[in-house]
Amino acid sequence: MQSSMPRIGVIGTGAIGGFYGLMLARSGQDVHFLLRSEYQAVLDKGLTVDSWVHGMLNLNPVQAYRDVADMPACDWLLVGAKSTTNAELAPIIAKAAAPGAKVVLLQNGLDNEADLRPLLPDDLHLIAGLCYVCLYRTAPGVVVHQDNGLIDLAYHSGPAGDDTARAAVLSEGAELFRQAGIKAREAANLESARWQKLVWNAAFNGVSVLLNGGTKALLDNPASWQLIRDLMAEIVSAAEAQGYSMPEQYPEKLLKHTHTMPDYQPSMYHDWLHKRPMELDNLYGKALEKAAQAGCAMPKTEALLQMLRFIQDRYLAAD
Fold first, then answer.
1. Alpha helix segments (H runs only) across the chain
2. Which pathway does it operate in (predicted)?
């Protein structure tokens, strides 16, 4: 750990950024939040997390900013905005980052870091943050936290030139989360970790939109249960075709764990509900491309993506 307290910035203070940022700030860390439409609400009432794990939490006052030019340069940046906006976020990240800052993408899907890397200064560390957490936003500055919170950190690229240097960066980041009461792990292989998380995300996100249901309804019905199980199996096969090992009987383990969770609507469900662009390319398109290159067919995943594109095209065209 560095001797002085690092300054942490949150870009994209929605459900993910709001939850992790509030937890870090409540532990006494120096956290600064960049907001747009929710700026005034957070300035007036602070950030609130209704946590089924930690209780009702409120952070007020909040070090909040509407313009990145007003933010102090940050040593760590947590990017909670959706991957669909990464091209627009790149100059904001560069402006908010102190020299040599560590940028953690708290995003779903594949290739987020690879797509963003060419748009960032070379001196910034780029890290994947894989969040295992049930969250949703109910109002400006108000987040409901239903379950979990574990985060995996995996180094993608930057000035850390060898395994020892990369491990030191990840250890520093994991310790920041642990001080806030959040379980954090350092992942050795970024691509393997991304594919492993995709098994749950690709199945439940898209099917929740297509069938308009949360996890309980989807698991209670034999037809939707089987569809989710088949989609999970396709993702596992695609990962293994590329040489990434998956835990034994992984779909069954995920389904069993999901049965123990509170009823949950994944993030894509809320994007569909509020008619926002869905993360279709990073959750499905990239996976299909990589699977095809490895000679692995994913027919049900491909059909799911086609239906989701139809749904998204219709509501975006209506706006």
1. 15-26, 39-45, 86-96, 112-116, 163-179, 190-211, 215-220, 222-241, 250-260, 267-273, 280, 286-293, 299-318
2. Cofactor biosynthesis; (R)-pantothenate biosynthesis; (R)-pantoate from 3-methyl-2-oxobutanoate: step 2/2
Q: Please answer whether residues 311 and 209 qualify as being in contact, where contact means their C-beta atoms are separated by less than 8 angstroms.
A: yes
In the CATH hierarchy, which top-level class contains the domain 192-318?
A: mainly alpha
Q: Using CA atoms, how far apart are residues 266 and 75, in angstroms rounded to an integer?
A: 31
Over the stretch 146-173, which tens digit does the pLDDT of each residue have?
999 999 999 999 999 899 999 999 999 9
Cβ proximity of 284 and 308 under 8 Å: yes
What is the CATH topology of the domain spanning 7-188? Answer: Rossmann fold (3.40.50)
- In this predicted structure, the answer to whether residue 31 has a pLDDT above a threshold of 90 is yes
Strand 142-157 relative to strand 184-186, pairing = parallel
197 is catalytic: yes
Read off the pLDDT of residues 62-117 as tens digits, 9 standing for 90 and up.
999 999 999 999 999 999 988 888 889 999 999 999 999 999 999 999 999 999 99
Domain ranges of the chain: 7-188, 192-318
Catalytic residue of the set 82, 95, 102, 197: 197
Contact 110, 290 (CB under 8 A): yes
Q: Residue 241 has what pLDDT?
A: 97
